[in-house]
Amino acid sequence: MNGWSWKRFSVNAETENGQKYSCYISVLLRTFKLSVLKFTIAYIPLAPEIKDFTDNQNSNAIKVINAYSAFLSEFVSAIKKELPKNLICVRYDVPIDFYDCESRDFYVNSIKTLVFAGCTKLKKSFTDIQPPDTTILDLSKTQEELLSAMKPKWRYNIRLAEKKGVHVEYFTANSDGFEKALDDFYSLYKETSVRDGIAIHSKDYYKSLFMLAKSQPDSPEIRLYLARHENDNLAAIITLFCKKEAVYLYGASGNVKRNLMPAYLLQWNAINDAASYGAASYDFYGMPPVDDEHHPMHGLYRFKTGFGGKIIHRPGSFDVPVNGFYALYVAAERLRAFYHKKIKKLIAGR
Predict the structure, then answer these.
(1) Under a CB-based contact definition with an 8 Å cutoff, are residues 6 and 216 in contact?
(2) Torsion angle of alpha carbons 41, 46, 47, 48, nearest 10°?
(3) Tens of pLDDT, residues 300-320
(4) How far apart are CA 152 and CA 106, in angstroms?
(5) Helix, strand, or coil (residue 189)
(6) How big is the chain by its Cα radius of gyration, in Å?
(7) Model's pTM, two decimal places?
């Protein structure tokens, strides 16, 4: 899918202190070519969770960080036989939630210190694949409790959209009208891209999310929510639903009738549907780390935190290098990031 393949298999591993660990692991694989050479990176969206290591309340923090780093390095040895021989690294997203940036930064800097001292193979990735900062709603609460936890303006905007006749409908890949709804979403997304200066993928990229969910019986459900008023498409979001959590993945809005506040009603519909689906939480998935009005995405921070969830800071992505081509790959990542963050915006006049 979009350059990635995936495997799922069982793993039996052992921690440094002899604790046995068995799990099923999903690994995404991407292969790159450089002249006659081919190399592959393996990406594990959520590293194995071991309570003793991923509970950030543990009082002996340095010891825990050291032990978990060692385990993730050793875990590569346990899965290498299932992965391509041209593997250059395994990349993890470390599943530890911190409730302030200082604690998260202490964790990241501690691992960098261990690397410098030669005590671990685990290295901080130059690029985070998943957004490390987010806000999460607890869906065990009632509708009244959820509304009460929001900022007053957010409750007002939801009721305004309802009062003004904004209509919200959701679609899956099996729904009648899905193809038209996806076209409407993508048109709105292109407007968002031009207005806000963000990069987007081709329409087929987003369609493939729905097709993958449709083709796998145990996959999460992917939903497209579309807000309309009369004959106008106003805004749309794509969300993922599973029993553990629901995740808001993508959002788009047009340039007409923005005063009807469709984005607030879209989120409120998705939040309620996630609770009905049985999801334990609703993850707004990605925002600036702090309330900084000078940050270019400050509006995103205000919008997502206004719904009253708990702000979470995660450590981001970490790599375990497997061979010498890893350094070349990191250099290529740095060049690509420089192009997209500096050169491309300079060319676009932003």
Answers:
(1) no
(2) -130
(3) 999 999 999 999 999 999 999
(4) 35
(5) helix
(6) 22
(7) 0.88
Per 3-state DSSP, the chain is made up of helix, strand and coil in percentages (nearest 5) of 40, 25, 30
Q: What type of residue is 7? A: K
Distance CA 64, CA 77 (A): 20
CA distances from residue 83 to 63, 65, 72 in whole angstroms, order as listed: 30, 26, 16
> Do the bridges between strand 167-171 and strand 133-138 make them parallel or antiparallel, or are there none, so unpaired?
unpaired
Rounded Cα–Cα distance for residues 267 and 64 (Å): 38
Strand order in the sheet with 37-44: 5-14, 20-34, 37-44, 87-93, 317-321, 123-124
Contact indicator for 245, 280 with CB cutoff of 8 Å: yes
Amino acid 53: pLDDT: 61
Specify the 3-state DSSP secondary structure of 275: helix
- E strands of the chain, at which residues? 5-14, 20-34, 37-44, 87-93, 123-124, 133-138, 167-171, 221-229, 232-241, 246-253, 281-283, 310-313, 317-321
Q: What is the pLDDT, as a whole number, of residue 324? A: 84
